[in-house]
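Q: Please design a sequence for this.
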């Protein structure tokens, strides 16, 4: 009698999923803040895993494309845009209890776009365990490294987001 050959999981072979890390995140039973970046945008999602039904639910999602509604006409994928997207996500998210950051298989470097979005979420009041040493500097978040005009536009957009989502959340 032949034994069945066990094939490795498809997403593990393609290096899209680290199942050990994912299992640890799911066992924590805390909502996950999932931050993914693409070539043009950054996406933030609040995910909850239901152990009884064994499925994941997206409670809230935000794409940096929505920053255009706040008159942000610069790139939707630079450090200031990632911070603003994280800020809007955090203000609009109803979950204020402790969450866990899910980075997936993305390469983590100090001060990158993902940590800029994380800083926006934390500034909005979300409780996410993190280390301040990975966060970008305030000058980079405000866009001083891009241009002087960027800092002014950043502050205007940040104020609009606080006004819009701050009132909506109360």
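A: Design:
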């Amino acid at each position: 009698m032949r034994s069945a050959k066990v094939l490795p999981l498809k997403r593990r072979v393609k290096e899209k999923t680290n199942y050990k890390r994912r299992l640890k995140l799911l066992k924590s039973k805390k909502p996950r803040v999932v931050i993914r970046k693409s070539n043009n945008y950054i996406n933030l999602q609040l995910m909850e895993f239901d152990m009884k039904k064994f499925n994941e639910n997206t409670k809230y999602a935000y794409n940096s494309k929505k920053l255009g509604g706040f008159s942000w006409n610069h790139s939707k994928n630079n450090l200031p845009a990632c911070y603003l997207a994280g800020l809007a996500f955090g203000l609009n998210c109803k979950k204020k209890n402790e969450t866990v950051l899910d980075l997936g298989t993305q390469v983590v470097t100090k001060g990158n776009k993902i940590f800029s979005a994380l800083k926006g979420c934390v500034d909005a009041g979300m409780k996410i365990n993190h280390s301040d040493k990975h966060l970008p500097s305030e000058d980079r978040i405000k866009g001083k490294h891009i241009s002087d005009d960027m800092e002014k536009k950043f502050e205007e957009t940040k104020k609009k987001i606080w006004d819009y989502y701050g009132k909506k959340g109360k």
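Q: Thanks. Anything notable?
A: The two ends are 67 Å apart (CA to CA). Strands lie at 32-37, 42-50, 55-63, 98-102, 127-128.
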